Amino acid sequence: MGQRIHFVVDPQGWCCMGLIIFIWLYNTIFIPKVILFPHYEEGNISVVAVLCYYFCSLFCIASLFRASVADPGKLPENPKIPITEREHWELCNKCNMMRPKRSHHCSRCGHCVRRMDHHCPWINNCVGEDNHWLFLQLCFYTQILSSYTLILDFCHYYYFLPLKKENW
């Protein structure tokens, strides 16, 4: 897995990244303030639930940054092709470089990527051989954080609020 840092200059991608970071900040500040902290003070939620929310949120944003700056498997300018594998390489008709089979040219990034899956505007990067696992981690942590937030919202409106009305 490549450890090179990779940035893409794409206005749509930067807008998508900005939107994701805004939503993440909003949820990291708003959900604890409205749901977690008041119910923690009342004794309905334990400190473990609060810490789990913040850990999920931290893992989600960390995986977003890792997936967005990781090199997706960009082919070098002058690749060294082993003699035994020359029949498995082909010429890219867009950048006129030799590339291995299953590599594709990304029109947004302007280069060929090994085992390219797609160009994701949400991470502003291609998903390829070297960052596919990081992209899957991002999807997993986003799903965990979204599910946890949905459960907290459900508990807030259908479990904790009726308890307050009965106590009044």
From TrEMBL:
Keywords: Acyltransferase, Membrane, Transferase, Transmembrane, Transmembrane helix. It is an enzyme of class 2 (transferase). This is Palmitoyltransferase. Residues 88-162 form the Palmitoyltransferase DHHC domain. The DHHC domain is required for palmitoyltransferase activity. One of its GO terms (cellular component) is Golgi apparatus. GO terms for molecular function: protein-cysteine S-palmitoyltransferase activity. Its EC number is 2.3.1.225. Belongs to the DHHC palmitoyltransferase family. The chain crosses the membrane at residues 12-31, 43-65. It is a multi-pass membrane protein. It comes from Chloropsis hardwickii. InterPro entries: Palmitoyltrfase_DHHC (IPR001594), PFA4/ZDH16/20/ERF2-like (IPR039859). Its main location: membrane. PANTHER family: PALMITOYLTRANSFERASE ZDHHC21, ZINC FINGER DHHC DOMAIN CONTAINING PROTEIN.
